[in-house]
Write a structure and sequence with these properties.
This protein is about 40% helix and about 10% strand. The protein has helices at about 10-45, 105-110, 135-150, and strands at about 60-65, 65-70, 95-100. The protein has a 3-stranded antiparallel β-sheet with strand order 2-1-3, covered by helices on one side.
Amino acid sequence: MIKLVTNFKDLKIGLIIAQKKIEAASKEGMRRAVLEFMDDTLHKPPMVPRRSGSLAASESVFVDGKLVSTSAGESHSGGTGSTPLMVFPKVSEELEGALIVNKPYAASVHEGVSRWGTSYKFRWPGSGKKWVQAKLTRYGEKYFNLIARKIKAL
């Protein structure tokens, strides 16, 4: 007679531990991805336009509603100054990463059209419209891989 005894309690505990490790690695990977994303919007063409630098100094990145970093250290002179957002609520149960450009005119400049319907003239070398969207299109896979590599390293 062969007797087989299985302890499912240990399996359940192991699965819970594994899930917590994956969640922590995912958050750390997302943290790295949003930091890279913000840096890319600031320093890779098309970059955030910089007439006074206030727009560049108003970016914030969040992971699951927690502030990760801001661009307040970007050089700026005149304008309305550095105004990064310091609080941003988590809006779903899924892992969230967010980049916020906290100026009332940010969307207009991003689209390249003023509130009067005229096109913006981007004078700063390398700057241009769609500086946020272009990074997601161009580097989205890089950001995803930053998250995946963190999980894979477990």
